């Protein structure tokens, strides 16, 4: 900036009609104008400095952007690009400036989409998928956002394109999806493994339960075979046209009347034993099979009844179970998964009182009540030592168990918690005021008149 000049000296020779005061006014006005010029020059230099800082800021932002950016005029010619685009396409800014945006695209479809976006830009911004040519001449998928660039008069003077290469995102998405699918498969395998572990604990009791009807059927079949031999002997005598006294004596000897009277009960008993065996096998198959995602109306009372029956059969000295069965309560879900949850809760309760009694003093209480108008609660309480305070927040964690090594996997309650969540319910644990631990399962109930023909009573 130049230095201020000294005020002009007064003329030595006076001018006609101009006195000294007039000259003083002129000099004062010149000084004012000069001062204003100095101030304007200072302000201009300040504005230039701010402009340079703004340009440097914009340049640093454009340089640091990981997304590609380019600015086009109204005809689609490139006016400005950022470093990310130059690096991607392998060309510098001077080579790109003035070229058409279509020269950066890898296929005709992308060029058509870009032209349509430029034509529609004055109305609205648009996100489209384009294929850019990278430095190696390979197509790179980019999600590009095209927005209009307005001039000072409010008219569209071009477009601004911001794009993000999606190849890495798509690869990461596919990897995440594959990992998620693998996690789901692992979860299903853990679920099935835990079910099979629970099933293994019931093998001894179920084998004993199967032995009764099978032995009953086997005994009846042996009796039927003997009866069949006697009837064959009598029929052979009939076909040989034996005399009436001989037939009467043979009939008495073979006890034909007793056979005829005993046959209906033998056949009925055999069918009953076979049906009991079939029911047990069917229940085991349904429990051990992998569950589908389908949700159907399920009678929760039958689930509780069957769980109590099976868990008791799996114990040599089961505790006393206090359970008053009621009318059918229907929920929407998977029978096999809910069966697993109930069996797990009962097995934990049985384990909690194991060794505290001879089966006559140790007790487990099972109650089914209506929690709200639309939900039901099944609570399982034992008279064991309860849950330690330091364990209360961890009992639903995977692989957490207080049982000795080899006695538990630590997955039962964790898997049960997940199953209940999938059914839209809750599973909680507390130490009961009466003593022992109490786990409560709350599930949404449904009204069975919506599912006529299923044989369920109305929810209670």
UniProtKB/TrEMBL annotation:
Keywords: Kinase, Phosphoprotein, Transferase. Residues 54-125 form the PAS domain. Its EC number is 2.7.13.3. GO terms for molecular function: phosphorelay sensor kinase activity. PROSITE patterns: HIS_KIN (PS50109), PAS (PS50112). The keyword Amino-acid biosynthesis does not apply. This is histidine kinase. It comes from Hydrogenophaga crassostreae.
